[in-house]
Amino acid sequence: MRAAIRQLRFWMTNYRRTWRGSIYSSVLNPVLYLGAMGVGLGSLVNAHGTASLGGVSYLTFLAPGLMAAAAMQTAMGESTYPVFGSVKWLKTYQAAAATPLRPADLFHGHLMFTTLRLAMNSAVFLAIMAAFGAARSPWVLACLPAAVLTGLAFATPIEAYAMTCKKDSSFALLFRFGVIPLFLFSGTFFPITSLPAVVRPLAYLTPLWHGVALCRSLSLGTAQPGQTALHVGYLLAVTAAGIYAGNLTYRRRLYA
C-alpha cells in the first residue's frame, strides 16, 4: 500500500499542474447536458406525459443516468491515453519499474488516482444535479459511491487492456463502438423497456446499465435491497476481474 501511495502522489503532482484543463469540462458538461436535454428536451417529453418514466419529469429521470454515464466517460479518459502514454511515449512506467516499485504498485496507484477523479467529478455532478432540482430523495447522496463504482467497473478492465496495446488507434475503436453505444442504449436517455426485446438482454449485461439503474433508483428513492445488491455485486465483480487482469498485464508488459 505504501508503494502504491507513492505512485498515487506522482499522479496527483501531475494533476496539480494540469487540473485547469479538466475542471471546465467537469463543471460545464453536467450544466450543458442537464440544461439542454433535461430542461430543454424535457419540456417536450413532459408535454406528452411521463407515465413511461415512472411519473417523474424527464429531468429527474435523466440526471442520475447522466451521472453514471459521466463516470464511465471519466474512467475511460483516465484509463486509456494516460496509461498508454506512460508505457509507450513517456516511458514513466519503465522508469518507475526500475525502482523498488512493482508493476502492481503502479497499477494500484493509478487506480487510486482514478478513484479520486471519479469522486471529484461525481461530487460536482451531484451538486449541479441538486441545483437543477433533479434530486427527489435523501438517498441521492448514495449516488456518489454508486457512480464511482460504475466508473471503476470500466477503469479496471480498460486499464488492463491499455497495457497490452501497441498502438493508440485501438482506443478510437473502443470509444466509437464501446462508449458511444453504451451511452445511448444503456437506459441513460430512455427506459430499457423501449428497446426491442431481442437486444434488451444485451443492455442488461453492460456495466453502465447497472450503474444507471442503481443511481436512478437511489435518486428517486425507489431502491430495493435485492435489486441494489444485484447491481452492486455485478459492478464489484467486473471491477475485481479488471484488477486481476490488470495485475497480469502490468507484470507481463513491464517485466517482459
Tags for this entry?
single chain, 256 residues, mainly alpha, 0% strand
Fold blueprint:
Blueprint: H1 2-18, H2 20-47, H3 58-79, H4 81-89, H5 92-97, H6 103-131, H7 143-162, H8 169-185, H9 200-204, H10 207-220, H11 225-254
Brief characterization of the structure:
The chain is mainly α and 256 residues long. It has helices at 2-18, 20-47, 58-79, 81-89, 92-97, 103-131, 143-162, 169-185, 200-204, 207-220, 225-254. The model has no long low-confidence stretch (mean pLDDT 92).
Describe this structure in words.
The chain has 256 residues and is an all-alpha fold. The protein has one domain (2-254). It is 77% helix and 0% strand. The chain is built from 11 helices and no strands. The chain has helices at residues 2-18, 20-47, 58-79, 81-89, 92-97, 103-131, 143-162, 169-185, 200-204, 207-220, 225-254. The longest helix is centred in the last third of the chain and has 30 residues, at 225-254. The radius of gyration is 19 Å and the shape is elongated.
The overall pLDDT, averaged over residues, is 92
Pick out the low-confidence regions: none
- Helix count from the secondary structure assignment: 11
Instruction: Please state the overall shape, judged from the principal axes of the Cα atoms.
Output: elongated
Number of DSSP E strands: 0
Distance between the termini: 24 Å
Most strands sheet: none
Please state the CA-atom Rg, rounded to the nearest Å: 19 Å
The SSE order reads HHHHHHHHHHH
Helix content: over 70%
Tell me the structural class: mainly alpha
Strand content: under 5%
Q: Give the number of domains.
A: 1
